[in-house]
Write a structure and sequence with these properties.
heterodimer, A: two-stranded antiparallel ribbon, 13 helices, 64% helix, B: alpha+beta, Ubiquitin-like (UB roll), 2 helices, 3 strands, 22% helix
Chain lengths: 331, 96
């Protein structure tokens, strides 16, 4: 999702009786629902996996500001502009909570940025799609934040304390994001002109499958899930969450009189769920490995911000050091 | 990439509206205390969460070690008489 395809370092899930006493005690703490805290002993693979997952999640929040930042200066009203600014500011905040959680595992902020910039760490594939019209702000809030919430709510119960606490804060704030997006869609798709309705449908068409991809590959191809679920750093399978998203989103689309761009979509009386077409997984693999429509732009924007901000970071640190020196000299 | 010195880590504590104690809410990077308070205001009080902010540089916090859990907290476990419910009182005595 915001952390798709997190590669695990473990070699599959071991049975309790095959574990070393230390590993076994650790797994039993997790099974009992205890939280693991930064100074507690943890297996190396748990630490590494979490750094990857939380790092990827944090990078997604930060890179996720770019597609929406694109529309701040062109929002149709002052109110919409204020809403969008507040949302994008929240995303920055969410990135910061998550970076701090990752840092408790012994990685530094600068190291995390460097890994993003050199392509060693990823961010969600969804942010490599362009936002072409104002209706995309509605679609992104409604679908992208909606999918993110679906993944993040269960993560509030994840086994790593600092990650779980960051998720609690994020979930509290995220609901406004989805609602403001849906509000934009109502204005355009239900109450708008014929052109606005067409724009809303077009945005929906372009974001539907990329939103489904946010949950990661199908369970049968999801090689890293089992260990993460045993460690409770992943709470549901990709397909479970994707189904839940489809079931909740289809009626919302109906309310907007929008058509889901999937001819096979149908409610299945037997299962009580919607049957739907899977996204194009080749496209997903392509986007995640760097060849989506906006990968180069997004990464370059982050690298540029880092590069051009360096004199501010260094200058402020030098000034604070100097002030501290003067204070010592005066005492 | 030039290796620059990373801004130090600060822990942030916020007192909410209702007269409770300051509570740990998270951490952030800043060059000094004044900067840390400004950043804490932006990162942790975007929705009126607080009326007062404390910041302390993380390296100045001393913490108990997880391996001391036993010696530190076990002794309290068998002292149930420290809780009011340990004492059975007759109903005639009224609320106490």
């Amino acid at each position: 999702m915001y952390a798709q395809m997190v590669k695990s370092t473990g070699k599959g899930v071991q049975a309790l009786e095959d574990m070393s006493p230390q590993d076994r005690a650790f797994q039993e703490r997790i099974d009992r629902g205890e939280k693991i805290e930064p100074k507690d002993w943890m297996p190396d693979a748990y630490r590494k996996n979490l750094i990857r997952q939380i790092g990827q999640h944090a990078h997604s929040e930060i890179v996720g500001q770019l597609p929406e930042g694109n529309w701040i200066t062109r929002a149709p009203t002052l109110e919409r502009k204020a809403n969008l600014l507040a949302k994008v500011q929240d995303e920055a905040g969410h990135g910061l909570y998550l970076y701090c959680a990752a840092e408790t595992l012994g990685v530094s902020r600068d190291e995390l940025f460097e890994m993003l910039h050199c392509g060693k760490m990823k961010y969600s594939s969804i942010f490599n799609y362009p936002t072409l019209t104002w209706a995309d702000m509605g679609a992104v809030g409604w679908l992208v934040d909606g999918a993110a919430i679906m993944n993040q709510v269960p993560l509030q119960r994840t086994s790593y304390g600092p990650y779980a606490r960051a998720m609690v804060r994020i979930c509290k704030e995220e609901s406004f994001h989805q609602r403001q997006g849906y509000h934009i869609m109502i204005k355009m798709a239900k109450e708008g002109t014929a052109d606005q309705k067409r724009m809303a449908q077009d945005a929906f068409n372009r974001f539907w499958y990329p939103a489904l991809m946010m949950f990661g590959p199908s369970d049968k191809d999801s090689v890293h899930s089992a260990q993460s679920m045993a460690w409770k750093i992943k709470m549901n399978t990709n397909d479970e969450l994707r189904q839940k998203f489809v079931d909740e989103t289809v009626p919302q689309a109906k309310f907007l009189s929008l058509t889901v761009p999937d001819e096979r979509l149908m409610f299945n009386e037997e299962t009580g769920h919607y049957d739907y077409s899977e996204p194009d997984w080749n496209e997903f693999m392509d986007v995640i490995s760097g060849n989506g429509p906006c990968n180069t732009d997004r990464l370059e924007a982050r690298k540029k911000a880092w590069r051009e901000g360096s004199w501010v970071r260094e200058g402020m640190m030098a000034h604070a050091d100097k002030k501290a020196q003067c204070k010592i000299a005066a005492e | 990439m030039t290796k620059s010195k990373e801004w130090p880590l600060w822990e942030v504590f916020i007192r909410g509206q209702h007269g409770m104690s300051h509570r740990h809410v998270g951490s952030l990077h800043a060059v000094d205390a004044e900067h840390a308070i400004k950043n804490a205001r932006d990162v942790y009080t975007r929705r009126n969460e607080g009326v007062s902010i404390w910041v302390v540089e993380a390296e100045n916090i001393s913490a108990s070690s997880p391996s001391d859990k036993g010696p530190l907290y076990e002794p309290a476990r068998d002292k149930v008489y420290r809780h009011p419910t340990f004492y059975d009182l007759p109903e005639e005595a009224g609320n106490m």
